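Support reply, case 0932

Customer input (verbatim):
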Amino acid sequence: MTKHPTLLFVDEVHRYALEKDAQDDFISPLATLAREGRKNGIFLFLTTQSPKDVPTIVLNQIGTLLMHRLTGEYEIKAINNFLNKDKLAQLSSLKSGEAILTSVNLMQPVNLNIKASGRTHYSNTPKLIKIKND
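Our regenerated output:
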């Protein structure tokens, strides 16, 4: 174990974990890190909007999930072993700022209502606004 644990953040993880060998087994370094990293002091924080595209070998190593609104059948199916039927049904109706937290360290999933930050977000994403017609 390393003296200095490392936390590795990977955004859009589905893009980096899909490499396979000739036998169709996942061989990406990310899959290896997910399976072997903890014993070496390497911890992963993974994000995706597409859990169905994250290999099962990586999903099976996850101990904590923070899930926002999911509506796609295959997206929900990819994470269905993390939640009971009632919580799975809630996923498609979560609003902005709402999420469900589940973890091996929790007795049951927790519904979260996250307050919007007052900080300025510097983003190139255009904002849609409603224009009043008189």
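We compared this against your earlier run and they match. Two observations from our side: Residues 80 and 88 are 7 Å apart (CA to CA). The chain has a mean pLDDT of 84. Please reopen the case if you see a mismatch on your end.
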